[in-house]
Amino acid sequence: MAASERGIQIRIRLFGILFIVVFLIIAGRAYDLQVIQAPQLQDRADQQRQRVVKLAPQRGSIFDRNGVPLAVSLDAESLYADPTLIKHPQRVAGQLAPSLQMSKKKLTRLLTEKKRFVWIKRKLEPDVAKQVRKLRIAGLQFVTEHKRFYPQAGVGAHVVGFTGLDPKGLEGVELEYDSLLQGEPGLLVSQRDARGRGLAVAGQVVQGGTPGLNLQLTLDRSLQYIAEKELARAVKQAHAVGGTVVMMEPASGKVLAMAIQPGYNPNVPNRFGASSRRNRAVCDMYEPGSTFKPFLLAGALEEKIVHPGQITNCENGRYAVGGKVIRDHKPFHNLTLQEMLKYSSNIGFAKLGKALGRKRFYSYITDFGFGEPTGLDLPGEARGLLRRPSRWFEIDLAAISFGQGISVTPIQITTAMAAIANGGLLMEPYLVERVTDAEGNTVQRHLPQVRRRVISERTAKLVREMMVTVTQPGGTGTRAALPGYRVAGKTGTAQKVDPVTGGYSIDKRVSSFIGFVPAELPALVISVTIDEPKGKAYGGLLAAPVFARIAEQSLSHLNILPKGSMADLAAVPADPEPLPDLAPLIPASEPVDGLVMPDFRGMSYRQVLQMMEAKRLNLKLSGSGQVVEQSPLPGATLHYGKQAWVRLGA
Question: What is this structure's pTM?
Answer without folding.
Answer: 0.77
